[in-house]
Design brief:
mainly alpha; DPS_DNA-bd_CS; DNA binding; oxidoreductase activity, acting on metal ions; 6 helices; ferric iron binding; DNA-binding
């Protein structure tokens, strides 16, 4: 994570964050959440791109499915970023930051519909793996709100991957 993001926010009037999680643990969890945010944003943007550009016999089905998924993902981005802020750190918010943190690579062009679905399966699986790694860190820090957030994200991304895989079967 970029150095500026690693630093705790200096609170107004010297108020220290004291929520029962050490500064070191808050930093580690915020870093994992930053990776989650970067992967989630990349997946959101890719899904929205595919929604706009899908063609073929499954157009209506995929167009609607992609819209449902990117709309849900958009809402989640805010929740992830706000959790990073609640832990006392800045959330990444630039393409450069996302590029350095994300495990998902955005496609270079517009693939065929079946390739879009395959790409989104892999993207949802990648976000699930990122969430699992962050979940372990949050559990170790006894950070229940982050554990709850990541558990919900895991459920959604695993379900999305299953639904997308079903189209390819």
């Amino acid at each position: 994570m970029a150095k500026a993001l690693n630093k705790s926010i200096k609170t107004e009037k010297g108020i220290v964050i004291d929520i029962g999680i050490t500064a070191k643990d808050r930093e580690a969890v915020a870093h994992e959440l930053s990776k989650m945010l970067a992967d989630s944003y990349t997946l959101y943007l890719t899904t929205h791109n595919f929604h706009w550009n899908v063609t073929g016999p499954l157009f209506n089905t995929l167009h609607q499915m992609f819209m449902t998924q990117y709309t849900e993902e958009w809402q989640a981005l805010d929740e992830i970023a706000e959790r990073i802020r609640a832990l006392g750190h800045y959330a990444p918010g630039t393409y450069a930051q996302y590029g350095s943190l994300a495990t998902i690579k955005a496609p270079d062009d517009v693939p065929e519909a079946s390739e879009m679905v395959h790409f989104l399966v892999k993207g949802n699986e990648a976000v699930a793996k990122t969430a699992r790694a962050a979940l372990k860190r949050a559990e170790a820090a006894n950070d229940a709100p982050t554990v709850d957030l990541l558990t919900r994200r895991l459920d959604i991304h695993e379900k999305n991957a299953w639904m997308l895989r079903s189209i390819l079967a």
